[in-house]
Amino acid sequence: MKKIVFALALPLLIASCKNDKPVPSVEQQEQGTLPQMPDSTATKPADTLATTDAWYGNYSGSLPCGDCKGILTRITLRKDNTYQLQSQYLGKETKPTIYKGSYNLDPDKHVVTLDAEGDHLKFLVVEKDSMIIKLDKFGAREQGAPFARYFLHKVL
Q1: What is the CA radius of gyration of the chain?
Q2: The pTM is what?
Q3: How far is CA 76 from its chain centroid?
């Protein structure tokens, strides 16, 4: 009888341990620099994103890569809706590949979409945390690695 109760309780116990919160990177854990996760109530109203200059600028980070150490990424978003994207596969390339083009801003969703030159990459602008987050091609959260690995932080 005890075995049956245990067998029935085990799936409930496992399900209760599930944690949907994103896992921060090791570097962020060590440095104690964990950014707040964006949520629709925490971001500024949509109309202010298109009218403020604070989110324009340079962003940098290392994005996940399936067959290399990471993709060193730097992007400059300019007020005139142009960008420059530098991308370097760590351990495979000795210098970055540079892409230039234009982007569109969806102020309602706070999403920047690059043109075809930038492979239509999408980024969520999180102005209050001075970062952008790489999204999948549908504009949803990436699923392949811990969420914090898709953050590009603003640099001076």
Answers
A1: 19
A2: 0.69
A3: 15
